[in-house]
Specification:
291 residues, alpha/beta, 2 domains, 6-stranded mixed beta sheet
């Protein structure tokens, strides 16, 4: 059992005791160090943290909390209930800390927007409180471990849109005529294998001239959701977001000065927009990045 962080202790009256104050101080320290931890381990399918994880393939954030019963309570039923309650409090607090450290783009973390806006702070705390308890594990010593989860889409949905972006314009000479049999695409897969890319809530796909092919602010009236990140093309083509016939394009590079945005050539960009119905799966966030 992981006891690397001090478990929460609740006294017989159900109030948080001195140990919780110590725990909160530890969380403040974690909040300062969490972003570098995520950045250092980014590039993996799942960003593993000491007390939780961000699963970029399935779009899930999870956190664990450990609670122990107070020594002053003898009733076994009451001890279990209090340990479970303590574990839940810890799990939700840890989930909030993880969420604050998630990248929105290469320059901005969720916590940066929370500092700027009380409304965003309230929204983020609200979705964390609504996270689902997926596991409650009792241990022989009377302690409890609780695991909570929530969707990255909910985090993305709490972030306000920026100014609407213009759709890309293409030169007539670069016209692409795809084969008719390949027109019924079910999503978009970006092959970014071999590139040093970091995951985020709102990546941009651009052409070499800087025009934006894909970004959440292309459709501010829609909530496009979070793209999927997977290891390898075979997994990408089978991802639930894009199966069964995704359009596949190759990323040329990561945009200069960015860790999260990709650049594709104009011909591939035009193939995405050649069919008007393709824009529908872009608005629905049916995009997967393989690296």
């Amino acid at each position: 059992m992981d006891r690397t962080l001090q478990p929460l202790n609740i006294n017989a009256n159900g109030f948080v005791g001195k140990s919780f104050c110590i725990f909160l101080g530890g969380l403040l320290f974690l909040g300062l160090t969490l972003a570098p931890m995520i950045g250092a381990q980014s590039g993996t399918l799942e960003t593993d943290l000491e007390f939780g994880a961000i699963d970029w393939e399935t779009g899930i954030v999870r956190a664990k909390g450990l609670g122990v019963p107070p020594d002053s309570v003898d009733n076994p039923t009451q001890r279990r209930a209090m340990a479970k309650r303590a574990a839940r409090i810890v799990a939700y607090q840890r989930l909030l800390e993880i969420t604050q450290g998630i990248k929105i783009d290469s320059r901005t973390l969720v916590k940066n927007l929370m500092v700027e806006s009380e409304e965003i702070t309230a929204q983020v705390k609200g979705i964390v409180k609504g996270a689902q308890v997926v596991k409650e594990q009792p241990f022989a010593d009377g302690s409890f471990e609780v695991t909570v989860e929530m969707s990255l889409n909910k985090v993305e949905g709490s972030i306000p849109n920026g100014p609407k972006i213009r759709k890309p314009e293409f030169a007539p000479a670069s016209s692409v005529k795809p084969i008719a049999a390949e027109m019924n695409y079910t999503g978009l897969v970006i092959n970014a294998q071999g590139l040093k890319l970091r995951e985020c809530l709102a990546p941009k796909i651009k052409m070499e001239d800087g025009q934006i092919v894909y970004a959440r602010d292309l459709w501010p009236e829609s909530r496009v959701g979070v793209v999927g990140y997977v290891k390898g093309m075979s997994m990408a083509e089978l991802h639930n977001k894009v199966k069964s016939n995704p359009l596949i394009v190759k990323a040329l590079r990561v945009e200069n000065g960015s860790e999260t945005n990709l650049v594709i050539n104009e011909a591939d960009a035009q193939s995405i927009y050649l069919e008007p119905k393709n824009e529908q799966f872009l608005q629905e966030g049916k995009v997967v990045i393989a690296y």
